[in-house]
Write a structure and sequence with these properties.
alpha/beta; 294 residues; 10% strand; 2 domains; Rossmann fold
Length: 294
Amino acid sequence: MSDIDLEGLNRFAKAGDRDAPPYFAGRQEVLEDIEHAAGECWRAWQDSRRTTPGATRVIQGAPDAGKSSLLMHLERSWSGPGGGAPAMLLLRDPTDFMNGKAFAERLVNMLRPGRGKEIRTEISKSWQLQGRVPGVGGQLGEESRTGIPDDPINAVLAHVPGETWTSPVVIAIDEFQAAVGDETSPHAMVLRKLHTQDYAAPVVTVLAGLSDTRSTVDRLGISRASIDAVSALGCMSEAETENLIEGWSAHFGLPDGHWQVTMLELARAGDFWPAHVRNALASFAEEVVRLEGD
């Protein structure tokens, strides 16, 4: 029993769904689709600095279907820019995208670690000289003196040109059903440009939220993507759940035993709904910690 990670189990039990899952299982088609979109975008970019319009992906489902966990898993799995492997900038809320200066800083920090604050200062000076107030209704979509719409992505590209990028970037926005505005909103214009790949950079967008997220996407006029670009998350399969329990057990150093059968039975009683599975594992983790692994 000494090999059991009691500290890790305790953290898992207390974390809820705020942290990336220690072991991820299932949703393979969705994961592969996002990775394929990023890969196609990167290949086209390498080929002739072309981009692939319509790369936006939508992930929607009821609360606790595992949308955020999927995004956090991808963020953790992709180590960061370099070597052509995708890099993800995960925004937990639409307002994190609509705050242009903060978004620009985060994007730069991912592409050029440590330079975000420096470039954010330069961008701020530029916007102030143009008489803008950063944020929604400010730089997003507004015409500059050159007649070219200014936005945080263009501002970043002015300092970190797309041809210097070493990986495709996936910009993922969670809780997207809460996005406000319509197709005339400045942030909607930027998202449409991301969808149509009007930026000179290899970028794919993933928009995740509740079951009405597709209607939010339509309201903002972002995507005319085919239905294939929309993934609906529901219950896991029994095989996926069994894989999750086994992988979770191995991650924390727990010995195989009848408890795994019990966990699977509890999951089956809850129709293999992701939140039910996680809650059952969290309760078991609490009990193992309480008994100190005995």
